[in-house]
Amino acid sequence: MTDIIALSIVCLAALIHASFQLSISTLTLMSGHSLGHGRSHMRLIGLLGGFTAGAATMTTLLVCTLGLLLSYLVHSEQVPPVLWAASCGMLFGVGLAVWLFYYRKGKGTMLWLPRQTADFLAERSKKTKNTGEAFALGLASVFGELLFIAAPLLVSVLIILPLTPGVQLLGILLYVGISMSSLLVVATLVSGGHKLSEIQRWREANKTFLQFTAGSALFVLGFYLYVNEVLTIPLAAGGLAS
Amino acid sequence: MTGGKAIDIVKSSGKRSTESFNRDKLHRSIKAACLSERSHDGEATNTADKVCDAVIIWLEQRPVVTSHDIRRVASKHLTRYHPGAAYIYEHHRYTI
Questions:
Q1: Coil/strand/helix, residue A128
Q2: Does the distance separating the beta carbons of B92 and A29 come in below 8 Å?
Q3: Torsion of CA A139, A70, A163, A236, to 10 degrees
Q4: How many CA atoms lie within 13 Å of B12's alpha carbon, on the beta-carbon side?
Q5: Closest Cα of chain B to A143: distance in Å?
Q6: Is the minimum CB–CB distance between A192 and chain B shorter than 8 Å?
Q7: Which residue of B has its CA nearest to A109?
Q8: Virtual CA dihedral for B42, A30, A190, A153, nearest 10 degrees?
Q9: Quick one: which of A97, A189, A206, B24 has the fewest CB in 10 Å?
Q10: Is A83 on the interface with B (CB under 8 A)?
Q11: CA A193, CA A139: separation in Å to the nearest integer?
């Protein structure tokens, strides 16, 4: 696999990560409470910055930690096919779960998460007053999404691991940057003075599309990797042997 | 209070006990919804006053209502003055 193809796969996985909505929901809620309490625009920008920095930090930590743990399993330049098969199974499973369960039925953009997690984040977003708390909320919101982001994270780490250190760093930066893009767009819109109702209405109107796209992208990525990393390599090895 | 008449509010979840209607609490939540839609403070206070008055008139003939009823009626009246704020007021519990 060339560096360009590897980084393209990382970009696709990061885009899938970016389409997940828990951090965006938490950011929207936090902004609403901040504006509702009549806090200044500078304070709001501080909260948005703190939240985004927290989410980016947690994503970086997750990528690096998973990379470190998997580096004990992957010693050569070739990731074992069994690991790829497990990752592809995870992509298919999460893709199906996203198609079927990602949003709860009914109005709004309620997600299929453990209610304690959702209630905790909603309660914390109400009580967030300074940048440090917003940073912690950003960390927690990415962690709360782990159930869904685990699959694209794992695949990205498996792709990044066999690369050279310079390209590995580029891969991590690309993953974190792209996965934060949706959050950055919403933070920019809110800090630019857009109304929260417009943002929330757009999210609600397009939630089925986002759900279908994320689920389909997980399937496409899983299928591509299964064919390339699980089926092709044994076939190529068989061809060489004969 | 609504002209001295106590009205019990039954909490929607059923987990907490009933409480008396509190105009200030309703006023605060409606004002916060207006402010989160970037209304000016005066405009938000004015809108919250009008919605609270409308809710109190609606409450006059009802000794017991649920908090969900209050939210629904307040949201209906808020839609007339500030549709964006009404959307936020009604939907903020369905965001996450």
A1: coil
A2: yes
A3: -130
A4: 7
A5: 15
A6: no
A7: B95
A8: -170
A9: B24
A10: no
A11: 25
Minimal-distance CA residue of chain B relative to A144: B96
Q: Do A109 and B36 touch (CB under 8 A)?
A: no
Q: Is B53 on the interface with A (CB under 8 A)?
A: no
Give the Cα separation of A32 and A26 in Å (integer): 10
Contact at CB, A109 and B32, closer than 8 angstroms: no
The ipTM, to two decimals, is 0.88
Question: Measured between beta carbons, which residues in chain A are less than 8 angstroms from residue B91?
Answer: 107-108, 200, 204
B6: left (phi over 0), alpha (psi -120 to 50) or beta: beta
- Quick check: B96 and A121 CB within 8 A? yes
Residue (of B2, B21, B5, B16) closest to B69 by Cα position: B21
Max Cα-Cα span within chain A: 74
**Residue A115 is encoded by which pair of tokens?**
């209610």
Per-residue pLDDT of chain A (242 residues; tens, 9 = 90+): 799 999 999 999 999 999 999 999 999 999 999 999 999 999 999 999 999 999 999 999 999 999 999 999 887 778 999 999 999 999 999 999 999 999 998 889 999 988 899 999 999 999 999 999 999 999 999 999 999 999 999 999 999 999 999 999 999 999 999 999 999 999 999 999 999 999 999 999 999 999 999 999 999 999 999 999 999 866 666 655 44
User: How many contacts (CB atoms, under 8 Å) link A and B?
Assistant: 66
Question: Which amino acid type is present at position A85?
Answer: A
Q: What DSSP character marks residue B13? A: T
Residue A7 φ/ψ, nearest 5 degrees: -70, -30
The single-letter DSSP state of residue A195 is -
8 Å CB contact of B95 and A38: no
Residue A38 to residue A40: CA distance in whole angstroms: 6
